[in-house]
Structures are given as structure tokens and as C-alpha cells.
Amino acid sequence: MNENTERSVVVRRTAAGRFTATNPRGGTVDFSTSSGDDPDTAFTPVELLLAAIGGCTAADVDAATSRHSEPDTFTVTVSGDKISDHLGNRMTDLTVAFTVTFPDGEGAERARTVLPRAVRTSHERLCTVSRTVETGTPVTTTVNGA
Q1: Between 108-121 and 45-65, two packed helices, what is the crossing angle to 10 degrees?
Q2: pTM
Q3: What digits encode the pLDDT tens for the residues 105-129?
Q4: In what helix (H) or strand (E) does residue 15 lie, and over which residues does it extend?
Q5: Which of 79, 68, 72, 78 has its CA nearest to residue 115?
Q6: pLDDT tens digits for 65-91?
């Protein structure tokens, strides 16, 4: 199998403190540096990290459970503490909490049974985002055309 493993996005500044990320397929996500009391509702980079963790593991778990039963409720809450210490700014105490319910009926009991294993498998092996955060991966920065 000769699969291209590279993944990328391009981030462009659109205004002071505002950015747009574009993927190779043309999809975009706008975000900003605003947080706290600022009324701007755009996601911050940290919130995008939390959303990426939640979205990645949600997709894994949904694939494993929904083949048995469509959920009534499927919510993933990702939270953590943003700190600044001798290591710099970072997130600690990241938690991912699933709230998933299934209706009564065919397949629902199987989906309920599969759910804990699906969450564990996503966390331990499948979710690229949380696996990358948890195992730690060096990040290289460069400056082009300065």
C-alpha cells in the first residue's frame, strides 16, 4: 500500500487576531485569538485543539456503535486547564467525556455493550489527534521568505 501519509493545512491571517485555515480540499475554518470577555464567538486555537480531539474520537466511536443502533444522544465534551509554567503555555488535565444513549430496539443493547470498548480503543489506538497529543510529537518551525 503506497498511501500518502502527509496531512496539511494552510493558515492565513485575515485581520488582526483573525485567521482562516484551509485544507487541501478547499474546506475552511475561521478562528481568532479572542477569548474571555471578548464577544467574538470564533473558536480559539486551543478550542480547535479540543474540538479536534473530540471530533477524532467521536468519529471512531460513532463508526463502532452506529452500525448497531442510531444513537438518541451523542455528545462528547472535551475540557482541560490552560496553564503557563516553566514549560511554557500548555493544556493539562485533558478529559474526554462521552454521553451516548440509544433507543430501545434492535441493536441498541449491542451498541451499549460496544460503547465502552469503542471509547477505549479510540483512546488507546485509533484517534490520531489524541494519540499525537498523549505520546508527544516534536514540532519543527521554519521561517520562509522573511
Answers
A1: 140
A2: 0.91
A3: 889 999 999 999 999 999 999 999 9
A4: strand 10-15
A5: 68
A6: 999 999 999 999 999 999 999 999 999
* Residue appearing with cell numbers 440509544: 102
DSSP string covering 39-94: ---SBPHHHHHHHHHHHHHHHHHHHHHTTT---SEEEEEEEEEEEEETTEEEEEEE
Give kind and range of the element (H or E) at residue 32: strand 28-32
pLDDT at 37 over 60: no
Residue 58, number of CB atoms within 10 A of its CB = 20
Measure the N-to-C terminal CA separation of the chain; round to a whole number of Å.
39
**Among residues 77, 70, 75, which one has the least CA distance to residue 112?**
70
Nearest Cα to Cα of residue 28 among 39, 16, 19? 19
DSSP symbols for 92-107: EEEEEEEEEE--SSTT
How far is it, in rounded angstroms, from Cα 59 to Cα 71? 13
